[in-house]
Specification:
The chain has 15 helices and 14 strands. The protein has 2 domains: 135 residues, Aspartate Aminotransferase, domain 1, CATH 3.90.1150; 237 residues, Type I PLP-dependent aspartate aminotransferase-like (Major domain) (Aspartate Aminotransferase, domain 2), CATH 3.40.640. The strands form 4 sheets. The chain has a 7-stranded mixed sheet, with helices on both faces. The protein has a 3-stranded antiparallel sheet with strand order 11-14-13. Strands 1-12 form a two-stranded parallel ribbon. It is 44% helix and 16% strand. It is of the alpha/beta class. The structure holds pyridoxal-5'-phosphate (PLP). The site of pyridoxal-5'-phosphate has 13 residues, from helix 5.
């Protein structure tokens, strides 16, 4: 007997991250935090070991009237001012002239979930990166979608030929292509495509779109931590070369951009050549939003608009400090890893660096051995994720060499 729908996977979520976070916490209590390297936490932490909550975000948030916090949002697709500002914040600097609309969502998760849920039919395949944020697969499973993956790298650059191959393979068996690209600052490798690589992606998707509708889901959760943040949106202009058969959904998240993970605010930015195409997806996404979460926190949307306009300078200055810190931490780890031969995926920017592990069995053994040495990390497909976003500069120093020694002694 089952109380839930029949077509659902009943195996519980294996929360591997939570289990390791707990172990790291226990180790800190037992042997002292100074003797533990906790590289598990995927949020931005300061050098003192606490979560960063930007003053420029939370001081204005605290000043928002309680009535505003209490009220429903102006619309099921989000407050007008928020929808406009999300577009102005992300797409406008690129100069793109595609038709567009914005739907507010609970974090980037909401935007990604809406897309997987509403674009494909049950049994169809979504194309994901081989190394990726774990929720994509979970969402696919909940929607009864199949998953196909593309290999991310060929030597130290994006594996464009495998991407093309997998796109073409999907179109041999179904009449629609949905591909996910988590870029810039890919989680968990820290890779960002060059403008030329994006142009290649656009060329390939245009070719696929001669056979069937193509939907590109570009997850930009970490975009505001690009090291060259002023040019981080430039690549979006390459989308203007898409033909009428390609649709773009950009999944935006305030979680990392504003250090406001718990406020559950994000957006799906819908872009296409024609107004009709944008409207067709908007109609379905709006209904799904209304049927699922109804609305997004009013105050969180208003605060994003205030912080990125009136409070822009204070916010950018505060964020810049942490971008520099991320750069310092990651450079230490990556440079030291190079020096001692610890192989990492090609990191450019972002919250995580990932140690390359071609064999998942060796990865498991390595991960266990690291824990025995009080180094706590997160296992990802073909890799070990090191969260430099939450690891102090001091803890980054010497870490790569310690990890390399442990690996060599397996
Ligand atoms: N996309 C990626 C790659 C992520 O790592 C995350 C969060 O960790 C998200 C999207 C969504 O985050 P949120 O729903 O908090 O915006």
């Amino acid at each position: 007997m089952s109380f839930v729908k029949t077509k659902v996977d009943m195996t519980p979520i294996e929360d591997t991250v939570f289990a390791i976070v707990k172990k790291a916490k226990e180790a800190k209590a037992k042997i002292g935090a100074e003797n533990v390297v906790d590289a598990t936490i995927g949020s931005l932490y300061n050098e003192e070991g606490s979560i960063v909550a930007f003053e420029s975000v939370f001081t204005p948030y605290d000043q928002i009237a309680k009535e505003t916090k209490a009220a429903y949002a102006g619309s099921f697709v989000g407050n007008e001012s928020y929808r406009k500002q999300v577009y102005d914040w992300i797409v406008k600097p690129s100069g793109s002239t595609l038709e567009h609309s914005v739907i507010a969502t609970p974090g980037g998760t909401g935007a990604v979930a809406l897309t997987l849920q509403e674009i494909l039919d049950e049994g169809e395949s979504v194309l994901l990166p081989e190394i990726a944020w774990g929720s994509y697969k979970l969402m696919a499973a909940m929607d009864n979608l199949k998953v196909k993956t593309y290999s991310l790298f060929e030597e130290n650059h994006f594996n464009i030929s495998d991407f093309q191959k997998k796109c073409e393979e999907i179109l041999e068996t179904q009449k629609k292509l949905l591909v996910v690209l988590n870029d810039p600052c890919h989680n968990p490798t820290g890779y960002s495509l060059t403008k030329e690589e994006w142009e290649e992606v656009v060329r390939i998707l245009n070719a696929c779109a001669k056979k069937a509708p193509v939907i590109l889901l570009n997850d930009i959760a970490y975009i505001d931590y690009s090291y060259d943040v002023d040019h981080s949106r430039d690549y979006i202009k390459t989308f203007d070369a898409f033909n009428e058969n390609v649709f773009v959904v950009i999944a935006f998240s305030c979680s990392k951009s504003l250090t406001s993970y718990g406020l559950r605010c994000g957006a799906a930015i819908l872009m296409a050549k024609t107004k009709e195409a944008v409207r067709s997806v908007e109609i379905v996404f709006e209904k799904a939003a209304r049927a699922t979460w109804s609305n997004i926190p009013n105050a969180a949307m208003d605060n994003f608009t205030f912080v990125t306009t009136d409070n822009h300078n204070a916010y950018m200055k505060e964020k810049e400090f942490y971008i520099k810190l991320l750069k310092e931490r990651s450079e230490i780890f990556v440079e030291e890893a190079k020096a001692c031969g610890l192989s990492c995926y090609p990191y450019k920017e972002g919250f995580f660096v990932t140690v390359k592990m071609e064999d998942n069995n060796i990865r498991d053994e390595f991960h266990e051995a690291l824990m025995q040495n009080h180094i706590y990390t997160v296992k990802v497909n073909k890799g070990i994720r090191v969260a430099v976003c939450s690891l102090s500069v001091e803890k980054c120093k010497g870490l790569a060499k310690r990890m390399a020694d442990i690996l060599n002694n397996l």
